[in-house]
Specification:
It contains 6 helices and 2 strands. The protein has 119 residues and is mainly alpha-helical. It is elongated and about 55 Å long.
């Protein structure tokens, strides 16, 4: 997957929220003062070039829809995050969650039980 800029990722979050939409609909989701509509339209075009969106014509404009699902994008981001900050060790990530008490012993045991069932 091609990496997104922070602005493209922000726009993509809105698109995932709306589903099919036009740039003006995403523009309306921003609080005042809103970014320029041209910047939103440019992000849509860039996202389409990068393979995240497709479009169809409606009247004089276009309606876009995501072709990359949010979870699929998240999996790619998660892998990159683990590689960058935890030297590729998923176990280090889990250990960090346990140490911060964001993952309970019960949840961890349930995960291990589910893992054993799959084997």
């Amino acid at each position: 997957m091609v990496k997104l800029t922070a602005k493209e990722e922000e726009v993509m979050e809105h698109i995932w929220q709306l589903g099919e939409c036009a740039p003006k609909e995403v523009h309306q989701l921003y609080p005042e003062p809103r970014p320029l509509i041209n910047g939103i339209q440019n992000a849509f075009q860039s996202l389409e070039r990068k393979g995240y969106l497709t479009h169809r014509q409606q009247g004089r404009g276009y309606i876009y829809r995501p072709i990359v699902e949010k979870q699929e994008y998240g999996r790619g981001k998660l892998g990159a995050f683990v590689d960058k900050y935890f030297d590729g060790s998923c176990l280090s990530v889990v250990s960090q969650f346990v140490n911060e008490e964001r993952l309970t012993e019960t949840e961890l045991m349930q995960f291990l039980a589910d893992l054993m069932k799959r084997r």
